[in-house]
Design goal:
Layout lengths: L1 E5 H12 L13 E6 L3 E7 L3 E8 L1 E2 L2 E2 L1 E5 L1 E6 H9 L4 E6 L4 E6 L2 E6 L17 E5 H9 L16 E7 L2 E7 L3 E8 L6 E6 H9 L1 H5 L1 E6 L3 E5 L3 E6 L18 E6 H12 L9 E7 L3 E8 L3 E8 L2 E4 L4 E5 H9 L5 E6 L6 E5 L5 E5 L6
Antiparallel strand pairs: 1-7, 1-9, 2-3, 2-8, 3-4, 4-19, 5-6, 9-10, 10-11, 12-17, 13-14, 13-16, 14-15, 15-28, 17-18, 18-19, 20-24, 20-26, 21-22, 21-25, 22-23, 26-27, 27-28
Helix pairs in contact: 1-2, 6-7
Amino acid sequence: MEFIINSENFNEAISEVSKAVSTKTPLQILTGIKVTASSDCLTLTGSNSDIIIEKSIPLMKDGVKIIEIVHEGSVVIPAKFLSEIVKKLPGKIHLKVNDNHLITIQSNEIVTSLNGLNSQEYPRIPKINKNYDLKIHGNELTEIIKQTVFAASKSEMKPVLTGVHMSFSKDKLTCVATNSHRLAMRERMIQSNIQCSIVVPSTSLNELLKLTEFELSEIKLFITENYIVFQSDSTTLYSRLIEGVYPNTSGLIPTDVKTTITLNTKQFLKGIDRACLFASEWRNNNVNLSIIEGSKLKISSNSSEVGKIEEIQTLKEITGQDELYISLDGSFLKDALKVIREEEIKISFSGSMRPILIEPVGNPTYLQLISPVRSY
Protein backbone atom coordinates (compact mmCIF):
# COMPACT_ATOMS: atom_id res chain seq x y z
CA MET A 1 0.00 0.00 0.00
CA GLU A 2 1.19 3.50 -0.80
CA PHE A 3 -0.46 6.93 -0.91
CA ILE A 4 0.24 10.65 -0.60
CA ILE A 5 -2.19 12.82 1.38
CA ASN A 6 -2.62 16.34 2.70
CA SER A 7 -1.61 16.27 6.39
CA GLU A 8 -4.56 18.40 7.52
CA ASN A 9 -7.17 16.06 6.05
CA PHE A 10 -5.32 12.97 7.32
CA ASN A 11 -5.02 14.39 10.83
CA GLU A 12 -8.72 15.31 10.94
CA ALA A 13 -9.76 11.78 9.94
CA ILE A 14 -7.38 10.18 12.46
CA SER A 15 -8.80 12.39 15.21
CA GLU A 16 -12.38 11.33 14.37
CA VAL A 17 -11.82 7.56 14.31
CA SER A 18 -9.50 7.67 17.36
CA LYS A 19 -12.60 8.39 19.45
CA ALA A 20 -13.56 4.72 19.03
CA VAL A 21 -10.11 3.31 19.86
CA SER A 22 -9.45 2.02 23.38
CA THR A 23 -5.96 1.72 24.85
CA LYS A 24 -7.28 -0.63 27.56
CA THR A 25 -8.40 -3.44 25.29
CA PRO A 26 -6.59 -6.80 25.63
CA LEU A 27 -6.79 -7.17 21.84
CA GLN A 28 -3.70 -5.51 20.35
CA ILE A 29 -5.37 -5.17 16.95
CA LEU A 30 -8.01 -2.85 18.43
CA THR A 31 -5.38 -0.39 19.69
CA GLY A 32 -4.76 0.47 16.06
CA ILE A 33 -6.50 2.27 13.21
CA LYS A 34 -7.19 0.31 10.07
CA VAL A 35 -6.15 2.32 6.99
CA THR A 36 -7.44 1.13 3.61
CA ALA A 37 -6.39 2.68 0.31
CA SER A 38 -8.75 1.93 -2.58
CA SER A 39 -9.12 3.36 -6.06
CA ASP A 40 -11.64 6.05 -5.08
CA CYS A 41 -10.88 6.95 -1.45
CA LEU A 42 -8.88 6.39 1.72
CA THR A 43 -10.84 4.79 4.58
CA LEU A 44 -9.89 4.88 8.27
CA THR A 45 -11.55 2.62 10.83
CA GLY A 46 -11.37 2.64 14.63
CA SER A 47 -13.14 0.25 17.01
CA ASN A 48 -13.33 -0.82 20.64
CA SER A 49 -15.74 -3.71 19.83
CA ASP A 50 -18.75 -1.74 21.19
CA ILE A 51 -18.55 1.09 18.67
CA ILE A 52 -16.92 1.40 15.27
CA ILE A 53 -16.19 4.70 13.53
CA GLU A 54 -15.36 4.64 9.84
CA LYS A 55 -14.20 7.74 7.97
CA SER A 56 -13.80 7.96 4.19
CA ILE A 57 -11.60 10.65 2.61
CA PRO A 58 -12.36 11.26 -1.08
CA LEU A 59 -9.58 11.81 -3.61
CA MET A 60 -10.89 15.30 -4.39
CA LYS A 61 -12.29 17.98 -2.10
CA ASP A 62 -13.73 21.28 -3.38
CA GLY A 63 -12.12 20.61 -6.74
CA VAL A 64 -8.67 20.10 -5.21
CA LYS A 65 -6.86 16.75 -5.21
CA ILE A 66 -5.97 15.81 -1.63
CA ILE A 67 -5.01 12.14 -2.05
CA GLU A 68 -2.94 10.27 -4.58
CA ILE A 69 -3.31 6.48 -4.32
CA VAL A 70 -0.12 4.86 -5.63
CA HIS A 71 -0.87 1.26 -4.56
CA GLU A 72 -4.07 -0.09 -3.04
CA GLY A 73 -4.01 -2.11 0.16
CA SER A 74 -4.63 -1.94 3.92
CA VAL A 75 -2.78 -2.07 7.23
CA VAL A 76 -3.50 -1.50 10.94
CA ILE A 77 -1.37 1.27 12.45
CA PRO A 78 -0.97 1.89 16.24
CA ALA A 79 -3.44 4.72 16.88
CA LYS A 80 -1.48 6.58 19.54
CA PHE A 81 1.71 6.85 17.48
CA LEU A 82 -0.06 7.57 14.20
CA SER A 83 -2.01 10.43 15.78
CA GLU A 84 1.01 12.00 17.48
CA ILE A 85 3.24 11.67 14.42
CA VAL A 86 0.79 13.12 11.91
CA LYS A 87 -0.02 16.08 14.21
CA LYS A 88 3.62 17.09 14.13
CA LEU A 89 4.27 16.72 10.41
CA PRO A 90 4.06 19.62 7.93
CA GLY A 91 2.74 19.58 4.37
CA LYS A 92 2.01 16.41 2.46
CA ILE A 93 2.47 12.96 3.94
CA HIS A 94 3.82 10.02 1.94
CA LEU A 95 2.90 6.69 3.53
CA LYS A 96 4.19 3.31 2.31
CA VAL A 97 3.70 -0.22 3.65
CA ASN A 98 5.82 -3.23 2.67
CA ASP A 99 4.89 -6.91 2.67
CA ASN A 100 6.03 -7.29 6.31
CA HIS A 101 3.63 -4.52 7.46
CA LEU A 102 6.51 -2.09 8.05
CA ILE A 103 5.13 1.43 7.63
CA THR A 104 7.20 4.38 6.42
CA ILE A 105 5.76 7.87 6.90
CA GLN A 106 7.62 10.71 5.20
CA SER A 107 7.02 14.47 5.16
CA ASN A 108 9.70 16.63 3.49
CA GLU A 109 12.98 15.40 5.05
CA ILE A 110 11.29 13.77 8.06
CA VAL A 111 11.06 9.96 7.89
CA THR A 112 9.36 7.76 10.51
CA SER A 113 9.03 3.98 10.59
CA LEU A 114 6.36 2.03 12.45
CA ASN A 115 5.52 -1.63 12.82
CA GLY A 116 2.00 -2.25 11.56
CA LEU A 117 -0.40 -5.18 11.98
CA ASN A 118 -2.07 -7.44 9.46
CA SER A 119 -5.42 -5.89 8.49
CA GLN A 120 -6.89 -9.37 7.91
CA GLU A 121 -6.97 -9.81 11.70
CA TYR A 122 -9.10 -6.68 12.18
CA PRO A 123 -12.74 -7.42 13.14
CA ARG A 124 -15.18 -7.39 10.25
CA ILE A 125 -17.63 -4.52 10.02
CA PRO A 126 -21.27 -5.62 10.47
CA LYS A 127 -23.27 -5.94 7.27
CA ILE A 128 -26.22 -3.58 6.92
CA ASN A 129 -29.33 -3.87 4.80
CA LYS A 130 -29.35 -0.78 2.61
CA ASN A 131 -33.09 -1.19 2.01
CA TYR A 132 -33.92 -1.04 5.73
CA ASP A 133 -33.11 2.49 6.74
CA LEU A 134 -34.58 5.86 7.64
CA LYS A 135 -33.37 9.43 7.27
CA ILE A 136 -33.19 12.35 9.67
CA HIS A 137 -31.27 15.62 9.55
CA GLY A 138 -28.24 15.67 11.78
CA ASN A 139 -29.21 18.74 13.81
CA GLU A 140 -32.58 17.15 14.63
CA LEU A 141 -30.93 13.90 15.69
CA THR A 142 -28.31 15.58 17.86
CA GLU A 143 -30.97 17.69 19.58
CA ILE A 144 -33.01 14.56 20.40
CA ILE A 145 -29.91 12.85 21.80
CA LYS A 146 -28.83 15.87 23.86
CA GLN A 147 -32.31 16.17 25.36
CA THR A 148 -32.41 12.55 26.55
CA VAL A 149 -28.98 10.94 26.90
CA PHE A 150 -28.02 12.83 30.09
CA ALA A 151 -30.82 11.06 32.00
CA ALA A 152 -29.44 7.56 31.36
CA SER A 153 -27.98 5.67 34.30
CA LYS A 154 -24.23 5.71 34.98
CA SER A 155 -24.48 2.51 37.06
CA GLU A 156 -24.01 -0.94 35.50
CA MET A 157 -26.34 -2.51 38.09
CA LYS A 158 -29.11 -2.39 35.47
CA PRO A 159 -27.29 -2.37 32.10
CA VAL A 160 -30.44 -1.64 30.09
CA LEU A 161 -30.83 1.72 31.90
CA THR A 162 -27.37 2.85 30.75
CA GLY A 163 -28.81 3.29 27.27
CA VAL A 164 -31.42 5.37 25.49
CA HIS A 165 -34.57 3.52 24.49
CA MET A 166 -35.31 4.36 20.85
CA SER A 167 -38.74 3.31 19.61
CA PHE A 168 -39.56 3.57 15.92
CA SER A 169 -43.16 3.51 14.75
CA LYS A 170 -44.64 4.73 11.48
CA ASP A 171 -43.23 8.23 10.89
CA LYS A 172 -42.33 8.73 14.57
CA LEU A 173 -39.24 8.32 16.75
CA THR A 174 -39.56 8.27 20.53
CA CYS A 175 -36.46 8.41 22.75
CA VAL A 176 -36.55 7.75 26.50
CA ALA A 177 -33.76 7.67 29.07
CA THR A 178 -34.04 7.13 32.81
CA ASN A 179 -31.91 6.19 35.82
CA SER A 180 -34.99 5.48 38.00
CA HIS A 181 -34.71 8.91 39.66
CA ARG A 182 -35.22 11.08 36.58
CA LEU A 183 -36.58 10.59 33.10
CA ALA A 184 -36.35 12.44 29.78
CA MET A 185 -38.64 11.66 26.84
CA ARG A 186 -38.61 13.23 23.38
CA GLU A 187 -40.76 12.51 20.34
CA ARG A 188 -40.02 13.49 16.75
CA MET A 189 -41.96 13.00 13.53
CA ILE A 190 -39.66 11.53 10.87
CA GLN A 191 -39.94 9.77 7.53
CA SER A 192 -39.82 6.11 8.51
CA ASN A 193 -41.47 2.80 7.73
CA ILE A 194 -39.46 0.97 10.40
CA GLN A 195 -41.24 -0.43 13.44
CA CYS A 196 -38.91 -1.63 16.17
CA SER A 197 -37.63 -0.90 19.66
CA ILE A 198 -33.93 -0.85 20.62
CA VAL A 199 -31.65 0.33 23.43
CA VAL A 200 -28.54 2.26 22.35
CA PRO A 201 -25.64 2.73 24.83
CA SER A 202 -25.40 6.31 26.07
CA THR A 203 -21.62 6.12 25.60
CA SER A 204 -22.11 5.51 21.87
CA LEU A 205 -24.54 8.41 21.56
CA ASN A 206 -22.16 10.74 23.40
CA GLU A 207 -19.42 9.78 20.94
CA LEU A 208 -21.78 10.51 18.06
CA LEU A 209 -22.34 14.02 19.46
CA LYS A 210 -18.59 14.65 19.20
CA LEU A 211 -18.61 13.97 15.44
CA THR A 212 -19.35 17.46 14.14
CA GLU A 213 -20.15 16.28 10.62
CA PHE A 214 -23.26 14.49 11.88
CA GLU A 215 -24.86 17.76 12.99
CA LEU A 216 -24.42 19.35 9.58
CA SER A 217 -25.76 16.75 7.16
CA GLU A 218 -28.56 14.29 6.56
CA ILE A 219 -28.11 11.06 8.53
CA LYS A 220 -29.16 7.58 7.48
CA LEU A 221 -29.99 5.11 10.23
CA PHE A 222 -29.72 1.37 9.70
CA ILE A 223 -30.84 -1.14 12.32
CA THR A 224 -29.64 -4.74 12.45
CA GLU A 225 -30.17 -7.45 15.05
CA ASN A 226 -27.18 -6.33 17.14
CA TYR A 227 -26.22 -2.88 15.84
CA ILE A 228 -27.55 0.55 14.98
CA VAL A 229 -25.64 2.39 12.26
CA PHE A 230 -25.50 6.19 11.81
CA GLN A 231 -24.18 7.22 8.40
CA SER A 232 -23.42 10.65 6.96
CA ASP A 233 -21.72 11.43 3.65
CA SER A 234 -18.24 10.35 4.75
CA THR A 235 -18.52 9.12 8.36
CA THR A 236 -20.24 6.02 9.73
CA LEU A 237 -20.69 5.08 13.39
CA TYR A 238 -21.71 1.52 14.30
CA SER A 239 -22.96 0.94 17.83
CA ARG A 240 -23.64 -2.39 19.46
CA LEU A 241 -27.12 -2.52 21.04
CA ILE A 242 -27.86 -3.31 24.69
CA GLU A 243 -29.74 -6.56 25.23
CA GLY A 244 -32.68 -6.68 27.58
CA VAL A 245 -36.21 -5.35 27.97
CA TYR A 246 -36.52 -1.63 28.70
CA PRO A 247 -39.06 -0.85 31.47
CA ASN A 248 -42.45 0.55 30.50
CA THR A 249 -42.17 4.25 31.40
CA SER A 250 -45.50 5.49 30.02
CA GLY A 251 -47.27 4.91 33.35
CA LEU A 252 -44.83 7.16 35.26
CA ILE A 253 -46.24 10.43 33.91
CA PRO A 254 -48.39 11.95 36.68
CA THR A 255 -52.06 12.62 36.02
CA ASP A 256 -53.16 13.82 39.48
CA VAL A 257 -51.50 17.26 39.28
CA LYS A 258 -52.16 19.54 42.26
CA THR A 259 -50.09 22.60 41.30
CA THR A 260 -48.75 23.91 37.99
CA ILE A 261 -46.42 26.89 37.63
CA THR A 262 -45.06 28.66 34.54
CA LEU A 263 -41.76 30.55 34.64
CA ASN A 264 -38.78 31.72 32.58
CA THR A 265 -36.38 28.87 31.75
CA LYS A 266 -33.07 30.76 31.88
CA GLN A 267 -34.00 32.72 35.00
CA PHE A 268 -34.96 29.52 36.80
CA LEU A 269 -31.77 27.76 35.66
CA LYS A 270 -29.62 30.61 37.02
CA GLY A 271 -31.46 30.45 40.33
CA ILE A 272 -30.94 26.69 40.62
CA ASP A 273 -27.28 27.11 39.68
CA ARG A 274 -26.78 29.62 42.48
CA ALA A 275 -28.60 27.40 44.98
CA CYS A 276 -26.36 24.46 44.09
CA LEU A 277 -23.38 26.34 45.55
CA PHE A 278 -24.76 25.60 49.02
CA ALA A 279 -26.28 22.20 48.23
CA SER A 280 -23.15 20.06 47.89
CA GLU A 281 -23.17 19.06 51.56
CA TRP A 282 -26.25 16.95 50.89
CA ARG A 283 -25.88 13.57 49.21
CA ASN A 284 -28.45 14.57 46.57
CA ASN A 285 -27.47 18.25 46.23
CA ASN A 286 -30.77 19.24 47.85
CA VAL A 287 -32.40 22.39 46.48
CA ASN A 288 -35.74 23.40 48.02
CA LEU A 289 -38.67 24.92 46.13
CA SER A 290 -41.67 26.51 47.82
CA ILE A 291 -44.48 28.86 46.84
CA ILE A 292 -44.86 32.01 48.92
CA GLU A 293 -47.44 34.78 48.82
CA GLY A 294 -49.49 32.71 46.40
CA SER A 295 -47.59 33.90 43.32
CA LYS A 296 -43.85 33.67 43.96
CA LEU A 297 -41.33 30.82 44.00
CA LYS A 298 -38.65 30.60 46.68
CA ILE A 299 -35.47 28.71 45.74
CA SER A 300 -33.23 27.84 48.70
CA SER A 301 -30.44 25.61 49.93
CA ASN A 302 -28.24 25.52 52.98
CA SER A 303 -24.94 24.21 54.26
CA SER A 304 -24.32 23.88 57.99
CA GLU A 305 -20.68 24.92 57.55
CA VAL A 306 -20.93 27.59 54.84
CA GLY A 307 -24.35 29.20 55.14
CA LYS A 308 -27.53 29.39 53.11
CA ILE A 309 -29.03 31.07 50.07
CA GLU A 310 -32.60 32.13 49.31
CA GLU A 311 -33.97 33.61 46.11
CA ILE A 312 -37.47 34.76 45.16
CA GLN A 313 -38.67 34.55 41.56
CA THR A 314 -41.99 35.86 40.27
CA LEU A 315 -44.11 33.26 38.52
CA LYS A 316 -45.76 34.03 35.21
CA GLU A 317 -48.71 31.80 36.08
CA ILE A 318 -49.88 29.42 38.80
CA THR A 319 -52.87 27.10 38.80
CA GLY A 320 -54.14 24.73 41.48
CA GLN A 321 -53.00 24.76 45.09
CA ASP A 322 -50.77 27.65 46.11
CA GLU A 323 -49.09 25.75 48.93
CA LEU A 324 -45.97 23.82 47.95
CA TYR A 325 -42.69 22.62 49.46
CA ILE A 326 -40.45 20.09 47.73
CA SER A 327 -36.76 19.18 47.80
CA LEU A 328 -35.05 18.12 44.55
CA ASP A 329 -31.57 17.16 43.36
CA GLY A 330 -30.12 20.45 42.12
CA SER A 331 -27.77 18.79 39.65
CA PHE A 332 -30.69 16.89 38.09
CA LEU A 333 -32.59 20.17 37.73
CA LYS A 334 -29.63 21.88 36.05
CA ASP A 335 -29.15 19.01 33.60
CA ALA A 336 -32.83 19.15 32.71
CA LEU A 337 -33.02 22.91 32.21
CA LYS A 338 -29.81 23.21 30.18
CA VAL A 339 -31.22 21.24 27.23
CA ILE A 340 -34.56 23.06 27.01
CA ARG A 341 -34.51 25.62 24.20
CA GLU A 342 -37.91 27.23 24.84
CA GLU A 343 -38.09 30.49 26.80
CA GLU A 344 -40.68 29.26 29.28
CA ILE A 345 -41.36 26.01 31.09
CA LYS A 346 -44.34 24.55 32.87
CA ILE A 347 -43.66 22.54 36.06
CA SER A 348 -46.39 20.31 37.48
CA PHE A 349 -46.40 19.06 41.08
CA SER A 350 -48.44 16.13 42.47
CA GLY A 351 -47.20 16.27 46.06
CA SER A 352 -44.02 16.72 48.10
CA MET A 353 -42.93 13.10 47.56
CA ARG A 354 -44.11 12.62 43.97
CA PRO A 355 -42.04 13.28 40.79
CA ILE A 356 -42.31 16.71 39.20
CA LEU A 357 -43.12 17.06 35.50
CA ILE A 358 -41.18 19.63 33.44
CA GLU A 359 -42.51 20.61 30.00
CA PRO A 360 -41.40 23.38 27.63
CA VAL A 361 -44.28 25.77 26.94
CA GLY A 362 -45.50 25.25 23.38
CA ASN A 363 -43.63 21.96 22.84
CA PRO A 364 -45.75 18.90 23.65
CA THR A 365 -43.11 16.52 22.22
CA TYR A 366 -40.72 16.83 25.17
CA LEU A 367 -41.05 16.16 28.89
CA GLN A 368 -38.89 15.38 31.91
CA LEU A 369 -39.59 13.83 35.30
CA ILE A 370 -37.49 14.32 38.44
CA SER A 371 -38.14 12.46 41.69
CA PRO A 372 -37.95 14.42 44.95
CA VAL A 373 -35.36 13.76 47.64
CA ARG A 374 -35.68 13.82 51.40
CA SER A 375 -34.71 17.06 53.09
CA TYR A 376 -33.70 15.47 56.40
